[in-house]
Amino acid sequence: MSVLADRFGRVARDLRVSLTDRCNLRCTYCMPEEGLAWMPREQQLTDAEVGRLIRIAVEQLGVTQVRFTGGEPVIRRGLTGIIAAAAALKPRPKLSITTNGIGLDRLAAPLRDAGLNRVNVSLDTLSPARFQQLTYRDRHADVLKGLAGAARAGLTPVKINTVLMRGVNDDEAPELLRFALDHGYELRFIEQMPLDAQHQWDRHQMVTAEAILASLEPFGLVADSVSRGTAPAETWLVPGYVDAAGNPARVGVIGSVTRPFCGDCDRTRLTADGQVRNCLFATEESDLRGLLRSGGSDAAIAKAWQVAMWGKRAGHGIDDPSFLQPARPMSAIGG
Ligand code: SAM
Question: For 6, which of 30, 86, 213, 312 could close a Cys bridge (C-beta 3.0–4.6 Å)?
């Protein structure tokens, strides 16, 4: 089998598929309150086109994990069918979604039955009032219900993604961790990245991995002996707690900016309009939709995907003076 290799010896096996650029929240670090100009429907890949690209990635290019994201993947009508089609592939990839959790209380069981293995739910605050300030929507209770629904459906370990912002919710790190531990969820703090549509990211305002760990000092975290491998999160054990499966509880920190893990990156990304991105911060994309719609063969599409990945840069370059934020914001790339 061919693989998605690059010039630096990395091989991409983890495919992130954005199913839509639309979202039902307006997280301030991602999107403006009024939303964005959404991708025209005809530009978005159909369910069958998404399914074909995933099949090529799995059967011909060695992809072993597929994570659906967006925008908000749960608002994509065909989500269950797309997951079922991916679950039917051989070898069967591991399937997960990153979601804001809204609607998951109803959808978790059908998604599990379709073949979904796991979820990451984004939650930045335990306060409904702050949630509304942060997302411009009054949906905090729905997110909590979604988390509970995912756990009930056995989509475990249920992970929570949290972005901390200085003066907004950075005082909540210990409470968020306690909440996660009490419910058997695994919390991941993510450093805020320069991927907001408004281009307001400011390195000096970012809550660093170091600051996050300092605020968790009362928990007496212990370095995790399990190797991180290609995972973005560094993890720590939380003494005195176990997870839903009875294993020692963990907390993770994704230090994308201050502790980059590009050297171990095994991700390849597909946008909702069929563009391959070899990095979250790539400024160039490779068009697979054009090939799909002009009758390209599976072999031609696989080749184009390989060429796109070969050009992956050694690192995201946020620290380079020449760093340019990608034209697409996070919501249109797929986080
Ligand atoms: N709507 C889904 C959700 O809320 O999880 C999936 C898409 S969202 C873009 C994926 C993840 O990216 C979320 O956990 C979100 O908090 C995170 N995210 C968005 N913008 C970010 C930024 N500028 N820096 C760091 N993480 C960001």
Answer: 312
Residue 99 half-sphere exposure, CB side, CA atoms within 13 Å?
Answer: 30
Could you tell me if 91 and 63 are in contact, meaning their C-beta atoms sit under 8 angstroms apart?
A: no
Sheet holding 267-270, edge to edge: 222-223, 234-242, 248-254, 186-190, 159-163, 118-122, 94-99, 65-69, 14-18, 267-270, 275-277, 286-287
CB 58 within 8 A of CB 86: yes
Q: Half-sphere exposure (CA, 13 Å, Cβ side) for 327?
A: 4
CA 317, CA 321: separation in Å to the nearest integer?
A: 8
Residue with tokens 């290019």: 61
- Which pTM value belongs to this model? 0.97
Cα–Cα distances in angstroms (integers) from residue 161 to residues 71, 177, 178, 187, 230, in the given order: 15, 11, 14, 6, 18
The pick from 21, 190, 191, 256 for probing ligand 1's pocket by mutation, whose C-beta has the most ligand atoms within 8 angstroms, reads: 190
Query: What is the per-residue pLDDT across 117-163, written as a single tens digit (0 to 9) for each?
Result: 999 999 999 999 999 999 999 999 999 999 999 999 999 999 999 99
Beta bridge partners of 15: 66, 268
Nearest residue (by CA) to ligand 1, atom 1, is 72
